Amino acid sequence: MNILKSKFIAILTLLIVCQFGNAQIAIYENPIPKYEPPDQELYDLILAKDKEYFDAYNTCDMQKQESLYSENLEFFHDKGGLTTS
């Protein structure tokens, strides 16, 4: 019985490894195309604003962060609901 169990486990392991190998080959055969934004100017502006915000956030520059937020900012949390402060 142990030999049958060992063979089953070996075959199952081999099948699983083969599936992962096929998945890797499929990725290289069909690479994901490079993203091309439809509006390069807008894309560059979004990247610049994102960098501006996260630079302020990561350096704890509260005055810069405050200048980037709107006075009527509303945040809706999926668990807690609307937060306005």
From TrEMBL:
<keyword id="KW-0732">Signal</keyword>
<feature type="signal peptide">
    <location>
        <begin position="1"/>
        <end position="25"/>
    </location>
</feature>
<dbReference type="InterPro" id="IPR032710">
    <property type="entry name" value="NTF2-like_dom_sf"/>
</dbReference>
<protein>
    <submittedName>
        <fullName>Nuclear transport factor 2 family protein</fullName>
    </submittedName>
</protein>
